Amino acid sequence: MPKLPKLPTPPLPPQFKSPPPRPGDEAAGSGPLQQAAEAGISVVDWVDERMSLSGAGRWMLFRKVPKGTNWAYTLGSATMFAFLSQAVTGVFLAMYYRPDPAGGAYESIRYVTNEVFLGQFVRGMHKWGSTVMVVLVFLHMGRTFFYGAYKYPRELNWVIGVVLLILTMLMSFTGYLLPFDQRAYWATIVGVNINGTGPLLGPYLSDFLRAGPEFGATTLSRFYAIHMLLVPGAIAAMIGAHLYLVAKLGTTAPPWQKAEKNPELRKAEL
């Protein structure tokens, strides 16, 4: 199996380098804004000297992209932005939510929607953002499949993407119960019963989701813990591994993009 060549870290582009000051500008640029900017640069340099983050930043951000890259390649970044939006809005909702099946869960959602300042807006972002994230994940997976980006050497990245798709669906499923109204309650019962029909692990998975053989007082707490702690942590870890492999292996060119023939390689084959 051929070994991929290791590419050197690309240099910092000239437009991102601060030019040297012109003669006579040292005294003119000594205002408060200039001093604040220099203080910020000094802090960044102090941290970078001890952690060496600039090299990792250049390795992650400044990389070559294949010819023919189009807007379809931004679906992965859009999905990550949707996840970050879900995380931020979820934190604000968690400040008011009470996982109490005896009316506390429903009343806390009603209070957020009707009483809290911008509560309806934040809840709407979280509710519809989950749908947007699911749609973006499927579009990103479809683009990866039809462009052939799952082939060697990116098989592991494809597997991580499939795991992220499953985790996204699980996060949507566990979040659907949290308002604890009639629709959420009965829809979750149907979903858990469907999981229970799976071979071998199905009944055990249903008991795990219900926190017992039947829906009880701890079922809502189980869904809340999975939705708020378990699944987001796993998604964040998988996204980190996914981005690392994307930066390491690069992206594939569109299938209709033909590679330019290199006469040197042609001579080597002969």
Structural class: mainly alpha
Largest sheet: none
What is the straight-line distance between the termini?
21 Å
Which band does the percent of strand residues land in? under 5%
**Approximately how much helix is present in the residues?**
55-70%
CATH superfamily of the domain at 71-249: Cytochrome Bc1 Complex, Chain C
Number of helices: 11
| CATH architecture assignment name of the domain at 71-249 | Up-down Bundle
CATH class of the domain at 71-249: Mainly Alpha
Rg, nearest Å: 25 Å
Task: Indicate the overall shape.
Answer: globular
Mean pLDDT: 87
- Order of helix and strand elements from N to C terminus: HHHHHHHHHHH
The CATH topology annotation of the domain at 71-249 reads as Cytochrome Bc1 Complex, Chain C
Uncertain residue ranges: none
Number of strands: 0
Descriptive tags:
single chain, 270 residues, mainly alpha, Cytochrome Bc1 Complex, Chain C, globular
In short:
This protein is an all-alpha fold.
Task: Write the topology of this structure.
Layout: H1 25-28, H2 32-51, H3 53-61, H4 75-94, H5 104-114, H6 119-146, H7 155-176, H8 182-196, H9 202-210, H10 217-249, H11 263-269
Helix pairs in contact: 4-6, 5-6, 6-7, 7-10, 8-9
